[in-house]
Each structure stands twice: as structure tokens, then as C-alpha cells.
Amino acid sequence: MNLEKLFSPQSVAIVGASPEEGTVGSVLAKNALELGYKGKVFLVNPKHTEIFGQKCYHSLAEISEPVDLAVVAIPAKFVNGEVKANAAKVKNYVIISAGFGEIGEDGKARQAELAEMANANSLHIIGPNCLGIIMPGVKLNASFAGGMPAKGNISFVSQSGALAVALLDIAKERNLGFTHVISIGNKMQLSETELLEYLATDEKTKVIGMYLESVKDGQAFIKAARKVSKLKPVVILKAGKNEKAQKAISSHTGALAGSDEITSAVFKKTGVLRAGSLEEFFSLIDLIHNSKTVPGPQAVVITDAGGVGVLTSDAFSGKSMQLADLDPKVKEMLREFLPEESSVENPIDLLGDSHEDRYQKALETVAGIKDVGAIICALTPQDQTPVGKIADVIIDFKHKTDKILATVFVGGERVEEAIKKLSQNGIANFGFPEQLINALDGYYRWTLLREKNNKLPEQVINPKRREYAAKIIAGAKAENRKALYFSEARELMEIYGVKTVECTDILPEKNSLPTKIKFPVVLKVDSDQVLHKTDKKGLVLNIQDKKELEKAVDDMRFNFPGSRLVVQPMLPGGLEIIVGVKLDSVFGPVVLYGLGGIYTEYLKMVDYLVPPESIGEIEESLLSGKLKFLFQDARGQKNYNLEELAGTLLGICLMAVELPEIKEFDINPLIVYNDGKSGVAVDVKVII
């Protein structure tokens, strides 16, 4: 899509312009006419011949000159007709009007018709039901939000128009400047994905911030976000962490794979920075847009208060970015001008009687440390503290360094003016150490994701394997079953290289038991109606001989008349792992893995993989996730086999991509050992 004329139009038409004070049409017209836009503005309203001293057209069709962008704010029932009549002439639309997909069946039908028109005529449409768009670079406010935000390097996309207005107000206070502010409304055509792709190519955009309540096309988003995140930071505040109710689920996987956890896994895979709150969103945006370069692995803290220094140091706990260990030469240089009582460790404590000269000398001393990517100046306004002069020193130093420079000025009135001065000079201040360190660490983690080999694996679909596996599923569907029998699931696992326990089927119509059985064994009901066998008493463990097996079979046939049964060898104990696949309605198949067994849903110690995944990505996930303790020497226990477990997960990722017919899947448990024995899948559910 070429969206240049949408976001840098030479001419704009306001359809629904109005002279009536306080109306949306009036605000749109005034914004376009009065805030410095140099292009042509056409006003359209059939009820008027003139508005605000400017000619008013009855329709878009009356305008003989080219119109790059039409901003439409008329009753919903007239929108489609106006677009249809001018689709050959006007290719870019911002539709402010509500009354589409958000209001019910009539609105959905109207929106579907508009979408069909857009596709048939190669139109670009933002909305409907949106606030509009603002481009400070060309001084065009094509929205009904008042005023013109400062020009800068932030592009902001919001699914909520009201929140966009609030964020712009906060941004003004923080001196944040924008290249684009885009309200996407119903996302009928242009959604977060298309806008990511466009903003990736915009040289003036340094950081992309988004507020989203949903993702329109998960697979397309993954592809775009992974590409864009390599070029510039993408910060997303995603709402909807809690669901009021969950639908009844039929497997452990369904209970574990909440939509918000899947969203987080997708963001992590694609390199998107997820803000956990509005405060964190602003902290990340503020820090990134003010930075000359990306952060290195270490930071130095300079402070006039030991308490704030300790709190700042504590905030680095568990972070990827760490405090630097200062070289003895650097410490010696610091001792030359600091009082004896000062600390020359990191944080560097200048003491409470510090004036601006100590800050200046300390900044100059640490400026050349190679691996330090960020310098933090923390300050509390003690009686003798010249806050304003210290701020001036920090501002002057910013012009001399490419390192990230940020401040933590803790206080109220006594630091208020200095904070304003810092903000006006491109230095982000944070009221509390944790806010800054969280933002700094997030930005640093983005650099790590960008630097690693983040290429998608080569095409993984194997047509022959896919065809063979699909036949197994087709056979079950032909019998109107919602799950595979164990023997079928075992065959499927063999196709994808997952070792599965041996089994012997006992069919309902057969009275005699198999003769070649090596005890001890396990007896299970094998039915698509009984998925949680332990809960339903469909599982008998540690059967020692034929007599015990006969009794167990009789009891189970009584409890589950007409059901198949399956006999498996009783395996030696090991560590129980769960591996599952959830077909997410937005992002498609997602693989989860973690501690398994009967406590799976209570412990919820699981991590997520978003296929396709390479073996290297899977091993990295295992070594950094909740199961990392399996591969670390712990109290003399041997490590578990990383390559074997990664290989199993790779097979499940391949299956998830190749077999979209599978709605849910889990192995619970997959028993793994650290004594040389191979891991084996014991219970496999494949829900179709």
C-alpha cells in the first residue's frame, strides 16, 4: 500500500463541515483551516454555500480539483453512497462517522459493504468510528481533537479515540513530539498491521507507540511486527488482560493458554515491547524518543542521596541491564575531587552537600567508560542543593555525549521547574527509580532481540507428511469423533518424531484379554468423551498381574460401557512435562510447555512458543524460561537432555503449523529422565 497521500496530502476535503459551534463538523473544519496546514482545504455540506468565509460544496463530486484525502463526518447512512460516488476520484478516506460494525447487524452490513467498496476500488480507509488523524509535520489536524501536538519523532496509533485525546494532553506536559497520531476506530481496512508496515518506512518516525484492544489479523501482525521491530522500537499498551468468563474447556491446554498470555508470547517473539501500564507506556516512549542511541549493557548512577542510590541499585535486580563495575582507575579519578566520605562505587554518592561542580566532574569522569550505555542522575532536593544549576550541568553534558542520559529528580515543588527545563531540553525525568530502570531495561531488551538472529525458519510444511497425518484425522472425523483414539495419536506422534509409550487396545466387542502383556501395566479408558481420565476414574495404575487386569477391565467396562480401553506399560517415575497446542482465534496455533501431571492447572508453570520456531529458538526458550532449572546443576542432580526436549517441541511446532484441523492438543505427561533414558509421551489428547 502506498499511503503517502493519506498521511501527506496536498489537498483535504471535510465532508460534513459545519458552522455550528461545538459540532464535530465545525471542529474538523477549523482544525484544517486554522492550525497552519498549507495544502488546499475544501469544505463539503449540501446545506451551506459558505462556511467560515470559505466556499462550501454540496458534495465531493462538485470539487473539480484533485482531492488527496476526504475526512467524512456525516450520518452513517449516507457515508457509503458518498464514497461510492467518488471512489474513482478520491482514494484516501478518514471516516469519523459512527454507526458501523460497532452498533449491531445493520452497522455490520453497512461496514461490510464499505469494505467491499474499498477493495474493489483500491481505496485506503481509516475508521470508521474514529477520532481522525494528525500529522504535525505538515500541520494537518484531520481529527476532532483540538490543537496541534508538537512535531517530533513519535508515531502513535490508538484504537480508542478518547484515550488518544488524553494521551496527547499528557504528552504536551511531557514535551513529547509526534510525526503521526492515528485513531484507527473499527479497523475496517487499515489496521495496526498496515500502519506498522507504513511507519517502518517513515524516516521521521523513531519509535512507534500503539494502544490496542484487539489485533485484527494475528498472522499478518506477527509477520509485520517481526520485520518492523528490527528497524525501530514498537511499544504497545494492550488492554484486555482479564477475561470475565472463560468458555468450558476440554483439555489442560485450553485452561492454561489464556489469550493475554498468548499475546505476550507473540509480542516477545516479534520483538515488540509490551507496556504493562499507561505509566510504563509513557516511560518507554519518553526514554526512547529522547535517546540519541540505543543503550549498552551497563549503567552508571550518580546521586546526592544514599537512599535514592540504594533504591536505584535495587531496581536493577533481575534485569538484563546491570550496574557497571567501575574500573579502579575511574574510582581513583573520582576520589581526586570527591569528599572522603563519598562512595566511588556504583551508584556514585556525591553526598547531600553536592553542588553542580561535583555532578559536572562526575559526569565527565564516567563519560568515556566503554560498556556504559546509560548515565542516570538521581537527586533529592536537600536544603543546600542547587537543583536548577545541577539541571543546567546535566543539560550541557547531554550535548557532549551519545550515551542515554536520564534523571530521577525525587520531590515536588522544589524540583518542578528543573524537571520542566530538563524535559524542554530532551532529557526524560522519572519521579521514581523503578520507572526509569524498567523503561531502560525494556529498551535494552529490545536491542538484544534486534541483534540476535531473528530470521523466520525456512518453510516447514512437508506436503507428504501433512497428507499422511491428515488422513488419520480425517478417519476420526468420518466417525464423528471429536478426539483421536490413543493408537491414532501415537501414530501421529511417530510422524512428528515424538516417542510415545507402547499400547495394546482392548475393543468393546472383545471379551478375551491380550495374552502378550508384560506386567506391571496401566489401564485407561480410550474415549473422546473422557478426556480427563483421573477425574473420571478412567485410569488404573500399577496393575501387577492378569487377575488384577481382568478385574480392572470389568470395572472400567461397567463405568464406561461401550468404550475402548488401552493397556500401557507402567513406566518408571521421572519428571512430568506438559506439551500442548492451542489454536488461538487471533494468532493461530500456539505451543505451550511446562510442568505437567495432576497439578498442571494449579501451578501453571508454562512457557509459550509461537510457530514456526527454529531449534535454536526453542533451546533458547527452554534455557531462559520456567523450566531452565532442568538444565542447570541443582543440588548435585544431573541435567536433563536439552536437545531431546527441544526436538520434541520442534516436532509439535511442525505439527501445529501443518495440521490446522487440530483444535487443541496436549501431552500430559511427557515423562523425561536425567539418567540416560529417553523421554516418552504417556497420555496424548488430540482434539479435532
Question: Can you put this structure into words, describing what you see?
Answer:
The protein is α/β, with parallel strands linked by helices and 688 residues long. It folds into 4 domains: 4-239, 3-Layer(aba) Sandwich (Rossmann fold), CATH 3.40.50.720; 293-451, Rossmann fold (3-Layer(aba) Sandwich), CATH 3.40.50; 502-570, 2-Layer Sandwich (Dna Ligase, domain 1); 575-687, ATP-grasp fold, B domain (D-amino Acid Aminotransferase, Chain A, domain 1). It is built from 22 helices and 29 strands. The strands form 5 sheets. It has a 7-stranded mixed sheet with strand order 3-4-2-1-5-6-7, covered by helices on one side. It is flat and about 95 Å long. Residues 244-257 have low confidence and may be disordered.
Quickly describe the structure:
This protein is an alpha/beta fold and 688 residues long.
Task: Draw up the topology in text.
Blueprint: H1 4-7, E1 11-15, H2 24-34, E2 40-44, E3 50-51, E4 54-57, E5 69-72, H3 76-86, E6 92-95, H4 105-121, E7 124-126, E8 132-135, E9 140-143, E10 151-158, H5 161-174, E11 178-183, H6 192-200, E12 207-212, H7 218-228, E13 234-238, H8 252-256, H9 259-270, E14 273-275, H10 278-290, E15 298-303, H11 306-315, E16 322-323, H12 328-335, E17 348-349, H13 356-366, E18 372-379, H14 387-398, E19 404-409, H15 413-424, H16 433-451, H17 463-478, H18 486-495, E20 504-506, E21 521-526, E22 539-543, H19 546-559, E23 564-569, E24 575-584, E25 588-595, H20 600-603, E26 606-609, H21 615-624, H22 642-658, E27 664-672, E28 680-681, E29 684-687
Parallel strand pairs: 1-2, 1-5, 2-4, 5-6, 6-7, 10-11, 10-12, 12-13, 13-14, 15-16, 15-17, 15-18, 18-19
Antiparallel strand pairs: 3-4, 8-9, 8-11, 20-23, 21-22, 21-23, 24-25, 24-27, 25-26, 27-28, 27-29
Helix pairs in contact: 3-4, 6-7, 7-9, 10-16, 11-16, 13-14, 14-15, 17-18, 21-22
